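Now for a typical sample entry:
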Amino acid sequence: MNILTSLLSLNLMIPHPGIVIQGQTIKHNAIDIVCMEGDKIVASHNGKMKYHYNRFMGNVVVIENESLRSSYSHLQSINKLDEVEKGDIIGFCGSTGKWSNGPHLHFELYETTN
């Protein structure tokens, strides 16, 4: 699934209006969006929200519904919600986790299969 094309074709919200600094490749199935530490990050679609800490990806939010799953990594902090609507603030830009070298959002998008 091409993330940038899917954001537009599925009428999803872009989680942050920053510049894409690393695109999607075979080894990097995500886009990295530059942001300032503390910038708002929003849900790209409606769904149930889960969150956790990963030593490599830092603070991570995952939003899933019947057709999509999105992941938002390296967040400075998380708004701990159970369900979100497209556009809800889910957290704030940061640089958490071993694989971050500065404030940015690592954003992944997948189709879910039931």
